[in-house]
Design a protein that fits this description.
Blueprint lengths: L7 H11 L12 H9 L2 H16 L3 H35 L3 E6 L2 E6 L8 E5 L8 E2 L3 E7 L1 H4 L5 E3 L17 E2 L4 E7 L1
Antiparallel strand pairs: 1-2, 1-3, 3-8, 4-7, 5-6, 5-8
Helix pairs in contact: 2-4, 3-4
Length: 189
């Protein structure tokens, strides 16, 4: 099965069974939710109290309206900035959607990383991002930058050898690859 990889039909079945190889994204908040979050900010609460006190307790309408105007501008600007930031993050996600080299039915093809399923045969070479956690069955001079996971500056040498036990520290799992790490040299399957 390693030489050929999964057949296309089996890959589709597993994708339907297990779902996409991606982290679920929380839903974006509604405009009302964003407004409530802005109003819950301590500065907004202080402005709301000051404006309400000016209008109701002191009867100073011009001052109360000025404070409420400042509060409104603050909320509108905050909501717009938050929405822009969310759109920018979504755009970056779409630009950096990783692909993977997968062997299916004996043919190596590029597929979206979200389309990887359990038992797929993934091929990686220098410069590739590892698209999913994997166990190495073949490796040739493979080195992977795992600094984001382990904190070690030097790349980790990898070799075929199977899955390590649960008590083995991540930095010592030489037969495994981890999603999001970068292959810096060599190749592996």
């Amino acid at each position: 099965m390693v030489a050929q990889g999964l057949g296309p039909d089996e890959a589709e079945r597993r994708l339907a069974e297990f779902g996409a190889n991606e982290l679920t994204q929380p839903p974006l908040p509604s405009i009302a939710g964003r407004v409530v979050r802005q109003l819950a900010d301590p500065l907004s609460v202080l402005l709301l109290i000051a404006g309400g006190a000016s209008l109701v307790v002191l009867g100073d309408v011009p001052e109360g309206l000025a404070i409420m105007t400042i509060l409104t501008v603050n909320v509108v600007v905050g909501v717009r900035q938050e929405a822009r930031a969310d759109r920018a993050v979504q755009s970056l996600r779409q630009l950096t959607a990783p692909t993977a080299k997968v062997r299916r039915g004996g043919v190596t093809q590029r597929v979206p990383a979200a389309g990887i399923v359990p038992d797929d045969v993934i091929e990686v070479t220098a410069g590739d991002r590892v698209p999913a956690d994997a166990v190495l069955v073949e490796a040739a001079g493979l080195g992977v930058d795992e600094s984001a996971l382990t904190g070690e500056a030097a790349s980790a040498d990898k070799a075929a050898g199977g899955r390590a036990g649960p008590d083995v520290p991540m930095g010592d799992r030489n037969g495994e690859l981890f999603s999001g790490t970068l292959v810096v040299r060599g190749s592996g399957t």
